[in-house]
Amino acid sequence: MEVTIQNFSEQLEVLKTVIKDASFLSIDCEFTGLHTQRSVHVFDSAAERYDKLREFSQEFLVIQVGLCTFQYDKEKSGYLCRAFNFFTCPRQILRGSPDRIFRCQASSLQFLSQHGFDFNKLFAHGIPYLKPAEVERLSKALEERHAVQMEALAQNGANAEGNRPKAAVPKEIQPFVDDVLESVERFLKAADDDGTPSAPPKEGEEGGIKGDEGDGVLHLAECDPFRRKLIYQEVKARFGEAVVMETQASVGGARHVVVRRAGPVSQQTALLEEKQRKEMADLEKAHGFGRLLEVVAQSGKLVVGHNMVLDVVHLLSQFVDDLPKDYQEFKSMVKATFPGVVDTKLLATEGALKDVFSSTMLGALVKQLGGKSSSLPPIEFVPGYGYDSVEEKLHEAGYDAYITGLCMAGLCQRLRGKGSESPAEEINARSAVLKPYLNRMYLMQSMDIPSLELDRDEVQPVRDHVLHLTFPKEWRTSDLMQLLHSYGYVTVHWLNDTEALVALPTASLAAQAAKQLKNQQAAQKLYRVQTFAEFAGRAGKQDSPSAKPFPSVDTAAAGVTATRVEADETAVPRKRKRSSSLGSAIPTIPEEDEISDSPNERKAKKKPQPEPQSPAKPQPKAQLDKLFEENDDWS
User: Fold this and answer.
1) Is 596 in contact with 573 (CB distance < 8 Å)?
2) Which of 141, 145, 431, 507 could disulfide-link to 552, CB 3.0 to 4.6 Å?
3) DSSP letter assigned to residue 614
4) Which among 621, 482, 499 is positioned nearest to 562, based on CA atoms?
5) Chain centre to alpha carbon of residue 460
6) Could you tell me what percent of the chain has a pLDDT over 70?
7) 271: buried, middle or exposed (CB in 10 Å: 19+, 13-18, 0-12)?
8) Are the folds of 134-284 and 466-627 the same?
9) DSSP 8-state assignment for residue 44
10) Bias category Basic and acidic residues: which stretches (predicted)?
């Protein structure tokens, strides 16, 4: 079901019911951009990675949200599914509401356009949104203004100006004001004669009637705020309590003054109350998509995503509240909005299913789960809320949310050791099979922190095998490889043009290299070497020790040998697709798991360096998979 501002209120009422009856919900988002200049690297701590994701969320917007409800059908041992695809776009419906900045990356918009994204629909009919704190502020301001209006009506009439200073009418605007006063006078005279407004003034009069005739209302010409102020001031001075005025927006958004003949105080009160009710309704409309997240939070339902950290960060930042700087406060914020989350990427890469799938990208994963040995239970769409399973719509948020839910159902069947022929059990936040994965979100492009943990502290890996190097900006990967080639296979992770983290096979080799290179650097003064602890301490980023540290790895912890780095020495940063089923003619898009080579690699092509003289043990397959995840297309 496609949802825009035109049918959001109607579908929100549907969602209130179906979310209550759902076993679990699945989500997905599409963004206007993904990366800032501050890149992630594989040795980020959990708090450092969160800080970078928080920065990303402040730069770009969610413009499409997919939500799919899965309701368990006990008789069929399957699920009844409803898929919703929301277009979300910032807009000003109320005065005083935030006028947001729409930032984007060209590559992201190009990617979405090539996948059929309807930008006309987004900008024309996108659902607005306000955060709860913004709603509270605007609601309070409206209530205060309404109280002042009612008090003014009771004391001085509907158009009381109180103690406002009177503005002088500029000579060049005086003809406009005179035309307005003449129009109002004709309007009142016609109302006195037969109860209807007079005919419009002759063509070209600025203050003339515009809009429908015969409705007992005079619509003055659209004008700027200062002229509207003068209209209120001068009409009040001329006609006193004989008229009631208000400002309305035209179809195109321009504002104009509407004049009515004043009736009894009771009638004026009724008109004012109706106007105030409309303003409060507009506030609810402006709250928009934020109302849906409140429904989700209140439901307490399990929320499922695939590689969902970026989705969660953006949803909270855009629709709930500004993200806190403190990482622990962020965890509390996530759990307040999504009491239970499960990441299907984590299910497919850890535990019993760790080495089962050749690819854990979303499109590839659902195909493997639905292959010859299908694990997918029966799933039916409610009419009007589904997708044609034959036609893929990858990168449409509603469709991606749907296949995320399919993966969830299939993975749970696999974890229970069952196939599609076995009855599927209901999946919810209390499912025993999900206990090891509950409230954990897969951490992309991290070598030794598998997930962000909402219920506990993350493991704190020992990184004694990692060195930090500072060097001239002309250096490339091959120069670093040459410097360190005698210490075995190493992996280089660039931080910027002049800094990199280098993983050696073992902590003892790293200590040996640090000692020898520090002696050399004093003489050469070309580079500087530090242990990872020294680097982290200098930056003020060293995490406190954990009660459950990882052991120092015995191989190149970054998960890729020197020979592979050399082979890609002149490559530009790699970009990945979320699904391998896309045609090769469609370019890839950088996403949150992009693996970046050195910025300097693009400057010149250099010959590959020789094989290291002291090869270390081969990389464990799990570490290789971890680094190269989501990069099936290396074109």
Assistant:
1) yes
2) 507
3) S
4) 482
5) 28
6) 77
7) middle
8) no
9) -
10) 202-213
Please name which of 595, 611, 503, 514 lies closest in space to residue 555, comparing C-alpha atoms.
503
- Per-residue tokens: 389: 């399973």
Q: Which pLDDT tens digit goes with each residue over 222-277?
A: 999 999 999 999 998 998 878 888 888 877 778 899 998 877 777 778 877 888 88
Q: How far apart are CA 308 and CA 494, in angstroms?
A: 25
The continuous run of DSSP H or E covering 139 comes out as: helix 132-156
Nearest to 130 by CA among 276, 311, 284, 8: 284
Q: Which amino acid is at 511?
A: A
- Residues present in the chain in total: 635
26 backbone dihedrals φ, ψ, rounded to 5°: -120, 145
CATH class, domain 466-627, is alpha beta
Query: How many angstroms separate the CA atoms of 82 and 100, rounded?
Result: 31
Bridge partners, residue 70, by sequence: 24, 81
Sequence ranges of the domains in the chain: 2-129+289-367+377-408, 134-284, 466-627
The 10 Å Cβ neighbour count of residue 453 is 16
What is the reported pTM?
A: 0.75
Looking at 251-308, list the stretches that DSSP marks H as alpha helix, in order from N- to C-terminal side.
Answer: 265-287, 290-299
Superfamily the domain 2-129+289-367+377-408 falls into: Ribonuclease H-like superfamily/Ribonuclease H (3.30.420.10)
Contacts 24+ apart (CB under 8 A), 230-237: 230/167, 230/169, 230/173, 230/177, 231/177, 231/180, 231/257, 232/159, 232/161, 232/257, 233/161, 233/166, 233/167, 234/169, 234/177, 234/180, 234/181, 235/159, 235/180, 235/181, 235/184, 235/259, 236/159, 236/161
According to DSSP, the β-strands at 217-219 and 440-442 are unpaired
3-state secondary structure 63-84: EEEEEEEEEEECCCCEEEEEEE
Q: Could you tell me the two tokens for 495?
A: 């931080």
